[in-house]
Amino acid sequence: MASIISHSPQETFDFGAKIATQLRQGDVLALAGDLGAGKTHFVKGLARGLGIENEVTSPTFTLIHEYRGGRLPLYHIDCYRLESTQELAEIGLDEYLGADGVTAIEWADKFAELIPDDAKWIRFFARENDTREIEAAL
Amino acid sequence: MLAIETSCDETAVAILRGNGKLLASEVASQVTLHQAYGGVVPEVASRHHLTQLRPLIDFALSRAEVELKEIDAFAATSGPGLATSLMIGASAAKGLALSLRKPFLAINHIEGHLLSPFFGCEIVPCIALVVSGGHTLLVEIESFANYRLLGQTRDDAAGEAFDKVGKLLQLPYPGGPEIDRRARDGDPMRFDFPRSMLHSGDFNFSFSGLKTSVRYLLPKLDRDCTNDVCASFQEAVVDVLVSKTMAAAKSHGKRLVTVSGGVSCNSRLREKFKAACAENGIELLIAEPKLCTDNAAMIAFVAAQKFARGESSPLSADIDPNLRLVA
User: Fold this and answer.
1) pLDDT tens track for A9-58
2) Is B215's CB within 8 Å of A36's CB?
3) CB-CB: which of A40, A57, A63 is closest to B42?
4) Domain span at residue B177?
5) Is residue B320 part of a domain?
6) A–B CB contacts, 8 A cutoff, strictly below
7) Which of B4, B223, B298, B304 gets the most CB atoms within 10 Å of its CB?
8) Average pLDDT, integer, range B16-35
9) What pLDDT is attached to residue B173?
């Protein structure tokens, strides 16, 4: 368990980049935390740490973004709009989980029952003075 | 030209004669369906594209009073968008092209939005802002197919910010038009939301911090502030969009600004663009409202430009959910 206090989006980004260096093919990161807590910034850092050069943007609208060109492919999934486990299953979650890359799932806590047991949970908490506590079970 | 657009939640078919004679432009919107989910749900989207597309093509043909065999070429959006949805439109257009021995054209959805202000006209140099649910970009256009990406969103698209703030405020889906409506009765100066990256010195955007500040402000407020939150939030988004676009026009020496995409229907955005352009002696071209949301007419228009230049796409052309405007 690693826990850090982030004072800025940049620090959240850097933490993501650091975590990325430890990731292996097939790893699943389950991200949980409020809107605006820094989940997308963390994934931006992950991408950078994996050596992906494309800009990572929010997949809320399209639900899944795929990024290639780094050490491992990165699949960025957002459950924000989904209402049922069935919908998450139907967008092909299993295909990404069993695939060749790293899968980062935002709002994973909404559908914890579909998240693999060996997923690494990263929880984001808003703390005082606009800081965030990021708790990573690695 | 018969064009099919199924990149997200609208199934759309258009039939275009020449460069700008629109014979039919039909949209089978799934908004009602998605309202139940509070957003676009891909599998729901693709299943309905599948059931709606065939009858919609027949309907468009009868509206246009043309027969399938009179169509000279078939086009479809090939990206960016939801893979499962894109596949349905592209497969249908390829199937029609193959069976009728006519050319097929794969069209970029963003290029459709980008050129929609020029619908039926010649494409001239300008600075173009595309603002929709999935995209926010500033592009310098020199001529058809000659584009330079100046900037884009670093996180959330402008339309997505409207949607998310709408959901935070528990407004009905889609959030954009509802915020626009409520903002008219609200005070845009009541809350000073951040204008992210206003002075970043580049042409990129960021709306994620704005969403976050709305999120953290809400618990401190009474419910009856909703209209003021809408107005102030909208003002912040519009300020950034207008000022970056105007700065781009100035620094690139362009006398024309175009705006397209779903968010360009926003009344405050239109108002402020008109004022800013008038003040700077710059001409303004905003896509017609019916061309702002996802539609197939804009896809047909781009396809017609390519077709007129003798271009077509191989039937093996694949869809690309992450397709970019400029490689």
Assistant:
1) 999 999 999 999 999 999 999 999 988 889 999 999 999 999 999 889 88
2) yes
3) A63
4) 124-286
5) no
6) 81
7) B298
8) 79
9) 80
3-state secondary structure chain A: CEEEEECCHHHHHHHHHHHHCCCCCCCEEEEEECCCCCHHHHHHHHHHHCCCCCCCCCCCCCCEEEECCCCCCEEEEECCCCCCHHHHHHCCHHHHHCCCCEEEEECHHHHHHHCCCCCEEEEEEEEHHHEEEEEECC
d(CA A25, CA A23): 7
Of B168, B173, B171, which is closest to residue B193 (Cα–Cα)? B168
Q: Tell me: ipTM over 0.90.
A: no
Residues B20 and B70 in one domain: yes
Cross-chain Cβ contact A82/B41 below 8 Å: yes
| Fold assignment, A2-136 | Rossmann fold (3.40.50)
The helix or strand, by DSSP H or E, that contains position B270, with its residue range, turns out to be helix B267-280
- Band (B39; pLDDT cuts 50, 70, 90): low
Output the CA–CA distances (angstroms, integers) from residue B182 to B225, B228, B250, in the order listed: 10, 8, 33
On average, the pLDDT of chain B sits at 91
B296 falls within a domain: yes
Q: Which three-class secondary structure state does DSSP give residue B187?
A: coil
Is the same domain home to B300 and B275?
no
Give the other-Cβ count within 10 Å of A95's Cβ: 9
Tell me, yes or no, if A61 comes closer than 8 A to chain B by beta carbon: yes
Question: For the domain that residue B78 is a member of, what is the CATH number?
Answer: 3.30.420.40
